């Protein structure tokens, strides 16, 4: 589920100034995620890059399993970033979060909880971390519709699509019933709530800028879902900058293919703004 891509020996002469975490969408092919990682490498050659893959089985996992999967990521951030900010003599690297679709959002939600609950002294004390966040096609709503569209991707036959409505509906019933019995919010409701907090990672002091990239024609993470989230977020007058890139016709998590220059320029801008935000503190 995890792929670490560290700087090479030839890069060591350059300043190590960021860890990039790419949270992939559900069942994303590895070769597509590697294309995003390669572009990150071209943009920022001295960065360490972590690819976190997401699978539909995440829905069934226990919280312990989800935490165990992400434990290497949390440990890496503590040792590489948080231990550096605890030592005032070191220049600590920043963190760039690249979160794709709800699957990526759920992993980020889990990692955030893990770090805030960490017993590490370095996580709770020290200087502020430079953090920037990119949300691509997230957060979505409409769990049943999303499940059906996801399960029927690539299916041309109308009869097969009709048959797929039954398992999709049964899965949705299971998730909805489990949420009622456990008296918990549904996964997507929890995701919306998690992304509405000011501080997603410890020691960022609310100053991490965000960019939301989505499309008017996305049928999985629909535009009105992202815009509802943004309306709630902006109404709370958050202490961080928010940039919005709304594409007209790109498909789900395909905005970088539709207009790569626009997509990656937004990525670079949000990272540049994180330096300005950190300088204010």
From TrEMBL:
<keyword id="KW-1133">Transmembrane helix</keyword>
<keyword id="KW-0812">Transmembrane</keyword>
<dbReference type="Pfam" id="PF05705">
    <property type="entry name" value="DUF829"/>
</dbReference>
<dbReference type="GO" id="GO:0031965">
    <property type="term" value="C:nuclear membrane"/>
</dbReference>
<protein>
    <submittedName>
        <fullName>Uncharacterized protein</fullName>
    </submittedName>
</protein>
<keyword id="KW-0539">Nucleus</keyword>
<keyword id="KW-0472">Membrane</keyword>
<dbReference type="InterPro" id="IPR008547">
    <property type="entry name" value="DUF829_TMEM53"/>
</dbReference>
């Amino acid at each position: 589920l995890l792929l670490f891509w560290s700087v090479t020996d030839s890069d060591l002469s350059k300043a190590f100034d960021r860890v990039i975490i790419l949270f992939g969408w559900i069942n994303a092919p590895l070769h597509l995620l590697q294309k995003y990682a390669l572009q990150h490498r071209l943009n920022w050659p001295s960065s360490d890059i972590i690819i976190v893959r997401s699978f539909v089985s995440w829905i069934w996992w226990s919280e312990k399993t989800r935490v165990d999967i992400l434990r290497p990521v949390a440990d890496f951030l503590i040792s590489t970033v948080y231990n550096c900010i605890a030592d005032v003599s070191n220049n600590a690297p920043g963190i760039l979060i690249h979160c794709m679709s709800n699957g990526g959002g759920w992993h980020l939600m889990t990692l955030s909880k893990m770090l805030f609950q960490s017993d590490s002294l370095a996580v709770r004390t020290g200087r502020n971390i430079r953090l920037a966040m990119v949300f691509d096609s997230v957060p979505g709503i409409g769990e049943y519709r999303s499940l059906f569209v996801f399960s029927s991707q690539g299916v041309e036959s109308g009869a097969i699509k009709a048959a797929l409505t039954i398992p999709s509906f049964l899965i949705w019933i299971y998730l909805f019933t489990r949420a009622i019995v456990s008296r918990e919010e549904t996964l997507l409701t929890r995701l919306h709530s998690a992304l509405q907090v000011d501080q997603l990672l410890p020691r960022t002091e609310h100053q991490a800028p965000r960019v939301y990239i989505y499309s008017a024609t996305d049928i999985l993470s629909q535009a009105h879902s992202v815009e509802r989230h943004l309306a709630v977020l902006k109404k709370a007058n958050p202490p961080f900058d928010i940039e919005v890139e709304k594409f007209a016709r790109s498909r789900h998590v395909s905005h970088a293919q539709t207009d790569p220059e626009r997509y990656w320029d937004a990525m670079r801008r949000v990272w540049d703004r994180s330096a300005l935000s950190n300088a204010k503190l």
